[in-house]
Structure formats: structure tokens, C-alpha cells
Amino acid sequence: MSDYQTYKDLEVYQRALGVKIHHFSLGLPKVEQFEIGSQLRRSSKSISANIVEGFGRKRYKAEFVRFLVFAHSSCNETIEWMDYVKDCYPDLDNSAEDILGKLDELGRKLNSFIKTVSRDHKS
What we know:
Structural class: mainly alpha
Number of helices: 5
Number of strands: 0
Distance between the termini: 11 Å
CATH class: Mainly Alpha
């Protein structure tokens, strides 16, 4: 755990997709910009925000893990919203599938990181 000077050094932070999903959401049909688009933007940005907040509390293992779990939950929520996009807008299927694959990988990495912090992190 001491290899990380800042949250920006964390692979899970580097793989967070907030900006990519923000831009993707702006390409949704206008009717969805404030519905699914807004939910996508919020949940995806919550992933990195919770990683940052958890890192800021890393001196307390339980708090660090708690915020990483929130990040993982936000990742799952973002996957759910991307599934809605894929189901409702088949013309966006390729872009949605690409993002879903990256979200799935991020979720697995977050899960692994949570286990590592739980096991190895010293408060």
C-alpha cells in the first residue's frame, strides 16, 4: 500500500471512466440527456470521487474500504444505466458494449483492490 503517493497512482482511479461516460452521455438522444444521461454522469463520476475520498481517509482501514465499496457500488449502478442505453438504443450498442466491457473490468479490479486493502492495509 505504501507504493501509492496519491490517489492518482491507483490503477482503479486511472481506469475510472467518468470523463469518457460524460462525453458518451452527451451523444444520447436529447430526450435522454436529462434522464439516463444524467444518471450515467452522476454514477460514473461517483466511482472516482469515492476512490478519492477513500484514499483521503486511508489512515483508517475501515473508512478506506467503505469508500472503495461505495465506488464499486457506483460502478455497478453505472453498468445498470449502460444496460438501459444498450436495450433502449440499439444504434448505440457498439459504444455501450465497449464501455460495459471497461466497467466490468473496473469492477473486477475494484473488488480485488478492496480485498487487498482489507487484507494488507495497516491503519
